[in-house]
Structures are given as structure tokens and as C-alpha cells.
Design brief:
The chain is an alpha+beta fold. Among the domains are: 17-95 and 111-156, Sandwich (Immunoglobulin-like), CATH 2.60.40; 167-211, no CATH class. The protein contains six helices and eleven strands. The chain has helices at residues 3-14, 168-172, 175-195, 199-211, 221-231, 235-240, and strands spanning 18-24, 40-44, 50-54, 60-63, 69-76, 80-81, 84-89, 116-121, 133-137, 146-152, 155-156. The strands form three sheets. Strands 3-2-5-7-8-9 form a six-stranded antiparallel sheet, with no helix packed on it. Strands 4-1-10 form a three-stranded mixed sheet, with no helix packed on it. It has a two-stranded antiparallel sheet with strand order 6-11. A hairpin with a 5-residue loop joins strand 2 and strand 3 (50-54). The longest helix has 21 residues, at 175-195. It holds the Pfam family EMC7_beta-sandw. Its main location: membrane. Keywords: Membrane, Signal, Transmembrane, Transmembrane helix.
């Protein structure tokens, strides 16, 4: 007869709060069946503690017997990225308010303290910086209460850069291609322009060709004198104001 009370006591001591994390569809993961079987979730706790939960058939993870402490929850997937979660587990006995003298029966009842609180976090944030609260529980840790929450994939992992195709517009935007097209236009278009010139313009153009570029290639000593003047030009004296 004493066996039944002993078993019930053992069951009561073994019962503890559990965490149930489910994955919900998102724009980057519409079909949850695409998740590989290697997907798993890990709880990193103080003093090197670690707990791992595999992916279940209903696309969820279950962590039983939550221990007191501050935990980091990460979902590891081959093809998708999930947000990081911070799980704070506090024993409700240690945070109960201490009754002071003079507190009568009419004193207001304090709200039940939260024993399990889940926040959104990011690896680049300080640990003291708490993100948005997404789940909480006020049940004692020794109860069979289950903290339920869901997360969605933030995006899909990309391991390879997609090769860009041929773009005709970007090809003609290349400066070397533009210079080549302009040179070909001058080579093939100049004879056509010369044929359509009037006699006076042709004469002026022929005179310019005789003088050469910048008027330095003409026959006689005038071109040579001009080239010599340019070679003997005193740049420092000109900048100093000398004539």
C-alpha cells in the first residue's frame, strides 16, 4: 500500500516545465517538408551546459526539464536561417516577495512572477540587451506546464553566386567599345563628309592639313620657329609674371 504514494512522489519530483518550439511557414520557407532531417535546435546554457533536440515529425523541437539559468536557443538548418532566442529560466521560489511586518489580510495580491521568458535576440547584441518578448510562463518549474512558441525562417542560405548573363546594353556602355565605335565612325564617315563639303570648306580644310596639328607642321621656317618657341618656353617665368 505504501508503493503508490512513493511512485506519485517520484513522478511529482521528475515533472518539470518543458519548452515546445514549432516552426511556422514564411515567405522563404512555404513548404515545411523541405527542411532536412538534420535540422536540430540547441540550448546553450551557463557553465558550458548544452541540450540538443532533433526535428520532430510535426516540425517542432521539445526541450524537457528546463533548468534554472539563462540560455541561448539556436536552430541549425542546412538551407535556412532562423532567429536566435534567449530563454531565461528562474525558480519561482527564489523570486517570491518577502512578507513584511504589518501586512494584513487586505494587502494586495502580487502578480505571479514569470518563471520562463523567451526573447528575440541577435548574436551581435550585448547579452544584457533584451529583445522583444515572444513567450512567457508563470507556472512553477516543478509543474508539467509547457511553454509554446513558434519561429519562422528569416531567409535562405546562398552558398554560390549566380552567374550573370550577357547584357547587350552593358556591352555598349564599355568605354573601350565606345572609343572603337567612334573611331570606326570617323574612318568610314570622313570620306562621306568630304564629298558633301562645298569648295570653300574643302579649301580651308586642305589649308589646315598643310599646316599640321596646332599649326606646327607647315612648310618653311615659320613652323620650325613656332616649335622652337614652344620648346624654349619658360613656364616658371611665365607663372612669375614675366613677359
Amino acid at each position: 500500500m505504501r508503493l503508490l504514494p512513493t511512485l506519485s512522489a517520484l513522478v511529482g519530483t521528475c515533472a518539470a516545465t518543458s519548452l515546445h518550439l514549432s516552426i511556422s511557414p514564411s515567405s522563404s520557407l512555404l513548404d515545411l517538408s523541405e527542411l532536412p532531417s538534420s535540422t536540430h535546435a540547441t540550448l546553450y546554457g551557463p557553465s558550458g551546459k548544452r541540450a540538443t533536440a532533433p526535428l520532430r515529425v510535426d516540425n517542432s523541437f521539445v526541450f524537457n526539464n528546463l533548468e534554472e539559468g539563462e540560455w541561448l536557443l539556436d536552430v541549425h538548418s542546412r538551407d535556412h536561417v532562423f532567429p536566435s532566442l534567449r530563454v531565461d529560466v528562474v525558480d519561482s521560489v527564489s523570486i517570491l516577495p518577502i512578507k513584511q511586518e504589518g501586512d494584513g489580510e487586505a494587502a494586495p495580491v502580487a502578480a505571479a512572477p514569470e518563471t520562463v521568458v523567451v526573447y528575440l535576440t541577435h548574436p551581435s547584441n550585448k547579452w544584457s540587451h533584451l529583445g522583444a518578448k515572444i513567450a512567457a510562463s508563470t507556472a512553477p518549474l516543478s509543474s508539467t506546464d509547457e511553454v509554446k512558441l513558434s519561429v519562422s525562417a528569416l531567409g535562405k542560405r546562398s552558398f554560390y553566386e549566380q552567374r550573370q548573363g550577357f547584357d547587350l546594353l552593358s556591352f555598349f556602355k564599355n568605354p573601350m567599345i565606345l572609343m572603337g565605335v567612334l573611331s570606326m565612325g570617323l574612318v568610314f564617315g570622313m570620306p562621306y563628309l568630304m564629298e558633301n563639303m562645298d569648295e570653300e570648306t574643302k579649301a580651308e580644310f586642305a589649308e589646315m592639313q598643310k599646316q599640321g596639328p596646332l599649326g606646327l607642321g607647315g612648310a618653311g621656317g615659320q613652323g620650325q620657329n613656332t616649335a622652337q618657341q614652344i620648346q624654349n618656353f619658360d613656364l616658371a617665368g611665365w607663372m612669375a609674371g614675366k613677359k
